[in-house]
Amino acid sequence: MVIAKRARIYDALALLTVIIVVGFDQWTKALVVENFSPAESKPFVPLIGHYLGILYIQNRGAAFGMLANSEGNILLAALMIVAIGVVLYLYFRMLNSGTLAYKLIFGLIIGGALGNLIDRAHNGGYVVDFLSFRIPEINYYFAIFNIADACISVGVFLLFVFVLFGGFRHGEDNRKEREASPHPLSSSGQKSGALRTTEQDVQS
Q: How far apart are CA 158 and CA 156, in angstroms?
């Protein structure tokens, strides 16, 4: 009972994470489109010194501008289908188990994926990217990205770290152990029955 209730709370927090990520992602994109349109018409606007700022572009590729050509779009669609399938499969394996950390990680990944999917559906195939990270001193300019990209990247990195150190396997082992262990009431009932049998044997 307690374990099932805790699992439902974790799933609810994962759903809340998805909602927050999608909402914040769409809100920031709407602000950028409203204040910096048309795309690539305004110079870099610094947020943190000259290292992180806003530079609005329309990205028809994947995260960070990858696969932006026509052949890349076909590959991108296939990769997105496979990735979503894998994420959903892993999540449903932990639907009634798994740690809170895993649920929040999947919330970040799913929320980021949904944010960009909503963008593509609404904008006719492109995603609004606007965060530009650069280090001018060494002539380094990272690909322009958005909040959804950042959440997906952080989520995938954390998932990799957890899997690498056995966190997912540990959660699965705990689930299997709970399923294999007898119910407390059933166990107590068996003990009571065994006790009564012993008492009858003594009396006879």
A: 6
> What are the domain boundaries of the chain?
2-165
**For residues 110, 122, 75 and 64, what is the CA-based torsion angle, rounded to 10 degrees?**
-70
DSSP, collapsed to helix, strand or coil, labels residue 184 as helix
Which residues in 117-143 are b (16+ Cβ under 10 Å) and which e? ebbeeeeeebbbbbbbebeeeeeeeeb
Picking from 48, 67, 47, 45, the residue whose alpha carbon sits closest to that of residue 56 is 45
pLDDT digits (tens, 9 = 90+) for 7-48: 889 999 999 999 999 999 999 999 999 999 898 889 999 999
Q: What is the pTM of this model?
A: 0.72
Q: Is cis: bond before 38, omega within 30 of 0?
A: yes
Active site residues: 129, 149
Q: What share of the chain is helix, strand, coil (3-state, %, to 5)?
A: 70, 10, 20
Residue 182 in tokens? 């007898």
Strands 140-141, 52-59: pairing is unpaired
pLDDT, tens digit (0-9, with 9 covering 90-100), for 84-118: 777 778 777 777 777 899 899 999 999 998 898 88
